[in-house]
Amino acid sequence: MKNKPLLIERIEGLDLWEKEVELSRNEFLKVSGSIDTNLYYILSGSLRIFIIDESEEHTIRFGYQDNMIASLNSFISEKPSEYFIQAIKKTKIKVIGKKAVMKLIEGSPELQQFWNIALEQIIFQQLEREQDILISSPKERYRRVMERSPQLFQEIPNKYIASYLRMTPETLSRIKKY
Amino acid sequence: MKTNNETVIMDLIEITRINLNQIEKLNLLTTEKLNFKENSEKWSVLECIAHLNIYGDFYLPEIENSIKYAESYKEPFKPGVVGNYFVKLIQPKEDLNKMKTLSKFDPNGSDLDRDILMEFKNQQIRMLDLLSKALTVNLTKAKTAVSISKMIKMRLGDTLKFVVYHNQRHINQANKVSI
After folding, report:
1. Which of A80, A161, B112, B125 could form a disulfide with B46, with the two C-beta atoms 3.0–4.6 Å apart?
2. How far is B52 from chain A, CA to nearest CA, in Å?
3. On the CB side of B148, how many CA atoms lie within 13 Å of its CA?
4. Cβ–Cβ under 8 Å, residues B116 and B46
5. What is the average per-residue pLDDT within B139-162?
6. What is the pTM of this model?
7. Site from B2, B16, B17, B130 to mutate, A interface, most A CB atoms within 10 angstroms
8. Got the DSSP string for A9-46?
């Protein structure tokens, strides 16, 4: 078992979870158009965030067991977002609202520091991701992601990885054979 | 600032999310179960959903068109007389009130394909997009036609409610078949 993030430990310690939600495969935690300012903690299973553009799904991010996940654009802006969040397999999560999270963080310098580091990490990941998307060689895109998050290839079905890497499933399996 | 449209539409988006999740659950059933009819009068799961698809085929383009030519949001949405009547009529109740379906909306088939579920799912993705677009328009002034008569017009806000509640109603019905 991995260590729980500090924030999660504190939420648990103070019993601040609003609820626990169970999703079966393909069920939606969030759909396009909704405002979702919750923070989720994945107890088991995995989720994916995607958008639909001209009937095509584009996978943006994955969440695994022990990860925190949110519809980050909506979490920050408190406005509707186009994100869908869907369970890839049977998934159990815990839910806490933004207000409760912020109140908790503001009351503790230790948590403030934790939160700042978490945000830094997200910015860094987004920069890597931006570079991924701009790189034209599918092979190179694959190599970078493989190096960064090998976990992805163990837990997530090929069709979603392919969507994340902006290539067809056929191209992905061809690259994987090398 | 939160507009009244937001209150109306966020509720409909949330019901649509739950509707979609119900469809994912129904999709786990065997094709045989999906086609099961208690008797010739009652609908199977797939007939319930096919019925919704027929409605969607009519209403989605109606809604899309109405939004395209609608004025921008100005004041809180006011339900109309026609709309209120239909929305109340269709809203799922504890005890599912029986209603008669016109034959043109009766899917009637005992060997339907589960693609019907996929078609419904695609319709809901489109509906979510339309609901987002409807956030910024005048839901009172914009109108759509009504499926039973081209003569009657309904306010866009009422039409959106009607379609989403109607989906909810028949998904509830489908859930009861499968038990």
Report:
1. B112
2. 20
3. 8
4. yes
5. 92
6. 0.92
7. B17
8. HHHHHTT---EEEEE-TT-EEE-TT----EEEEEEES-
